[in-house]
What does this fold into?
Amino acid sequence: MRKGIFITGTDTGVGKTLISGAIAAALSKRGIDVGVMKPVESGCSRSKDKLIPSDAIFLKQFSGSQDDLDLINPYRLEHPLAPATAAEMEGVKIELKRVEDAYERMESNHDLMLVEGAGGLLVPLNDSLLIVDLIKSLHLPALVIACSSLGTINHTLLTLRTAEASGIEVLGVIINHATPHVGIAEETCLSSIQKFTHIPIFGVFPFIEDSQKNNREYLVDLAERYVNINIILERLKGQR
It folds into this structure.
């Protein structure tokens, strides 16, 4: 089995962290030793002289990972902006080598690695590198999280075509109901996307109330019910 998946999104705020954590917890419940990584996190809150990477901490807790948080999250940025912009403002230089080294140190200790990106595929990390370059440097297939709101057909197909043009294999797509609103756009986006791509839809995640977003047992149940985890694992087999 290939040992990692890069989880990207069609945009920011589409539910990548929530679904990544739910999948990690569900896999862990099955006895799979899951490692997690959030290479770059912007919008971190500050506590005294430290930046708190809430997404990375969420992934660490839900996966049960014992890895050092500095390996899980090599770059923390305070401004809630694209990583390249936030890093420039904060005097930080994001380098792929640092991320690659952290990933390699963790990979050998786990059955499977889940790496969550920042925003979408074309989000800049520095003046010359995008998220697609990070995915390629780690040699991972991608899992795309798409929001079910109006516009997701365009955003999803653009993401899939960008991945294909960049030589990135996409395992599948998970559609997330990031808001409680369900209208015609939300009801029809799945069938519309399927008409224009051969990439499989692995599931449609329901809307989750804020009060339940840290409920590990609840999210594991949703992942098992609404995401085809078996087919994700199947597609990883024999693809090294």
Summary: The first strand starts at residue 4 and ends at 9. The chain has one domain: 4-236. The chain has a mean pLDDT of 93.
